[in-house]
Specification:
heterodimer, A: 113 residues, mainly beta, 5-stranded antiparallel β-sheet, globular, B: 113 residues, 7-stranded mixed β-sheet, 4-stranded antiparallel β-sheet, 11 strands
């Protein structure tokens, strides 16, 4: 039972354009959501997070949007840069589960110069 | 301030051997998490430990897998009698309890031949 899903395994975007990565979840107990970026042969790196009491959080070129009624979140990267090419993982946690994260399967983003 | 250190980076074991994966958390972090990433999949939670205590091992296979985080020294994930299906990347993360921004290590890639 996949509680966090990233339905697009890959995404290709032109440099300078917007990248939109999507994530859906099923567990209504999730109250904190995170995005991680991962390069090959490295560990995931924390990018940005959002609490369920908010619907938007912005950090530089990265913005995360949360739609609780749809159980959907998205990561927007504007403008996209070739160095953004990586695998992006969405993750979610529930306060009652402590700090355990449930990850989606990842989306591979390729930003073309 | 060194990040989360995992060693070895690559580990090759024959079927039936034991694999020991080590993780030293970031300085000041007393919470350690182990995740496993199978090929083409997202990260799956295995176990959450604090010093000398296993807090949540709901993601650990019931047999052959064990984890510890002793008072002194690194956290150890131990896999006995490895099988080919254990081949994966094993990531350790640490955190300060007050935030969800895990810091991941670079992982240990286990190959069972």
């Amino acid at each position: 039972d996949q509680q966090v899903k990233q339905n697009s395994p890959s995404l290709s975007v032109q440099e300078g354009r917007i990248s939109i990565l999507n994530c859906d979840y099923t567990n209504s107990m999730f109250d904190y959501f995170l995005w991680y970026k991962k390069y090959p042969a490295e560990g995931p790196t924390f990018l940005i997070s959002i609490s369920s009491i908010k619907d938007k959080n912005e950090d530089g070129r990265f913005t995360v949007f949360l739609n609780k009624s749809a159980k959907h979140l998205s990561l927007h990267i504007v403008p996209s840069q070739p160095g953004d090419s990586a695998v992006y993982f969405c993750a979610a946690s529930a306060r009652e589960a402590g700090n355990m994260l449930t990850f989606g399967g990842g989306t591979r983003l390729m930003v073309k110069p | 301030n060194a990040g989360v250190m995992q060693n070895p980076r690559h580990l090759v074991r024959r079927r039936g051997q034991e694999a020991r994966l080590r993780c030293s958390p970031m300085k000041g972090h007393s919470h350690v998490y182990w995740y496993r990433q199978l090929p083409e999949e997202g990260l799956k939670f295995m176990v959450y430990l604090q010093k000398e205590n296993i807090i949540d091992e709901s993601g650990m296979p019931k047999e052959r897998f064990s984890a510890e985080f002793p008072k002194e020294g690194p956290s150890i994930l131990r896999i006995q009698q490895v099988v080919r299906g254990d081949s994966a990347a094993y990531f350790c993360a640490s955190s300060d309890r007050e935030n969800y921004g895990y810091t991941f290590g670079s992982g240990t890639r286990l190959t069972v031949v």
